[in-house]
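Weekly puzzle thread! Below is a chain. First person to post its structure in token form gets bragging rights.
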Amino acid sequence: MSIRNSYFKYLVNNYLDVINVEGFDITQIIPETIKKRTLQYLTDCDFITNWFMDLYEKTNDERDLIQLKDTYEEFKVGDVYINMSKKDKRTYNKSYFTEKIQNNIILKYHYKEREQRKEIVKKYGKTEMKQVIWGFKLKTSNEEDYGEDDE
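Winning reply:
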């Protein structure tokens, strides 16, 4: 029993030495597989992320923009919102929806409060766009997506 206790004390003391070093970053000791599984779990638990990823696709073009007002309108006519209770519908108003997108673990990096770059003005014909998500576009629907047979 004393060997186990002394070994345990040794492990704890060495671990604390590593943590107490200045500039210690916990992400250095977390394996990539754990990070990926955690991210997958968090996205699976958030139905707004799942809904968004089903409707929109990620692009490499930073000029692809989606305004949150359009996204919220799409959300309101979708099955998820229609099947909500009245209480949940009151909760998922536009400001709450915007807040969920702003704080989302994936989408928050693509959110901009205001966009007014020259190439955006040229592409969309607007001098300024508010509350946008860049790098995503609406998925195009193909007949194959509807499960039709190819004969």
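Puzzle host: Confirmed. Bonus trivia for everyone else. Strands lie at 56-58, 65-67, 111-115, 129-134, 136-138.
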